[in-house]
């Protein structure tokens, strides 16, 4: 940004902008007042409601909600890091099913809160909407938690919760049981050096609330903590799992912050330019109300030889904004403007050439956008889309200036980036022609593919589409299905690996075209989940290596071209049985080795009694396929979910991309989980 552009200016929203000097250590500027006392705790004003309707606070009492309890306590520690007072966070999964989160922040206030008559700790853990994050007088300038419900919700949904605070030379402890009732009030239980400070929270989820499971998944927690470490460069986050015979754990610390995050995401890809470009800056804005806000953003980006254009990962105050928002809009504006401006200055685009589209500039791009805002406004209850209009202009200005500076200083990399975008533009035009050809030709003079055996119901909520490997199994499925609600689409062989193919090739693939038409929601940016014809898309393949490969090819296609299907939980994996035992005129089925052994014992079979091991769906007739795999009353299916987009991105890239080493590493790390491999 030029000096004259840094002068105070008022935009069409009535917001006044002024550039702010960004020091080397941004966290030093974001640092809140060191004096963090009960005066910082504000009560917006009850805990029974949380236990009565936990879904209102953690969305679900299934596994995602269980893990959400950990995120809430970790987020409080991260907010201490954002305030400038925490450098180490530890999460421990204990043998008894409880979780301990420790930080070296300032420590939750232990003096009495005037509005509640309780200590700061007891107030924060027993009263909803009580905390130090409500703006004026609050203990934080920037935080992820804005509603003051995190700690109290965790307490309400726990069998017991114990909090220890080191503060001002004292060690304080309080214990809650049975949904947040204080059974041991806050007491000073010892002395610690004045230099020691922080908070330790241990809680055990209540099995009466989390009836599906109370077992934490190590990988889920590991991935989340690693993400937090990337987003908060220099903060050390350790994970310890004490539940097994041997303790395991990992420690994450990334001095490079989101620059290392981008490199991590791209680790299985080939960069077209070696640099991870980094932009950062802050501006002070004056709202129409007269309120002054300091808004900071940092962006890291790198292009690879991949063809997808959905590699944008955005955050505000460490919260993932999966639907984007104004910070992403600002980035897109700057990206398109700068790439086109540089391309014309460098004569890489002719005078008569049309401008490159934003999607052209984004093809193969991996980008992490992290904004810090004192008062973020999110669209919807899930905090997935940032709505503050002032952020758009700030991000656009910061990225625009610094990305142009990078391109000017690195002409070789700049040329590679522009040529990548130009190639993407050619592919986009070819894909548009392929779409048009597809509409007129192979994909359909008729509205639905001829291979599809559709169901008679037109209600998507009850309709199911079985995508079946092979014509033989497809024939059995068509004959055995419930014709009212179950449709069958057979696949011939393996579909195209969309991870490596350009879009025009994808549209020419008959099997992919059949799926697009059958599902009915479109693809990519035009995909509309409200128009899909089935609310269950069931992948049904053989239980062998080829079947596994077909499943991952299909999941790759859905992830790249119909991601809302996975995000909405509409995709399932059918689980056909592996074994059949005929005994006294009856057929018995087992879905794995453990079930087979259990079945043998239940039937009291002699050693060596014969059984059948299914190698493919084609070995089952229509009746058997219905009884074992398609009958809603008895079938087993796995629902595919998408909780971590970054981890999913890496898995698909590692398994389906060009690089061999990441795939080899994945196989070696997961080989011990493999069963029933064909040799």
Structural account:
The protein has 679 residues and is an alpha+beta fold. The protein contains 21 helices and 25 strands. The chain has an 8-stranded mixed beta sheet with strand order 9-8-7-10-5-4-11-12. A 7-stranded mixed beta sheet has the order 1-2-13-14-17-15-16. The chain has a 5-stranded mixed beta sheet with strand order 19-18-20-21-25, sandwiched between helices. α11 crosses α12 (411-440). The longest helix has 30 residues, at 411-440. The chain is globular and about 75 Å long.
- The shape, in one word, is globular
Strand order of the largest sheet: 9-8-7-10-5-4-11-12
Oligomer: single chain
Rg over alpha carbons: 28 Å
Kindly report the average pLDDT value. 85
Provide the descriptors you would attach to this structure in a database record:
eight-stranded mixed beta sheet
Please describe the topology of this protein.
Blueprint: E1 9-10, E2 16-20, H1 26-30, E3 42-43, H2 48-52, H3 55-58, H4 63-82, E4 88-93, E5 99-103, H5 120-126, E6 130-131, H6 150-156, E7 158-167, E8 170-177, E9 181-191, E10 198-205, H7 218-231, E11 236-241, E12 248-252, H8 258-265, E13 277-286, E14 292-303, E15 312-316, E16 319-320, H9 326-345, H10 358-362, E17 365-372, H11 389-409, H12 411-440, E18 464-469, H13 471-480, E19 486-491, H14 503-507, H15 510-519, E20 536-540, H16 545-561, H17 563-567, E21 571-574, E22 579-583, E23 586-590, H18 593-603, E24 612-613, H19 622-630, E25 637-639, H20 645-656, H21 660-670
Parallel strand pairs: 4-11, 15-17, 18-19, 18-20, 20-21
Antiparallel strand pairs: 1-2, 2-13, 3-6, 4-5, 5-10, 7-8, 7-10, 8-9, 11-12, 13-14, 14-17, 15-16, 21-25, 22-23, 22-24
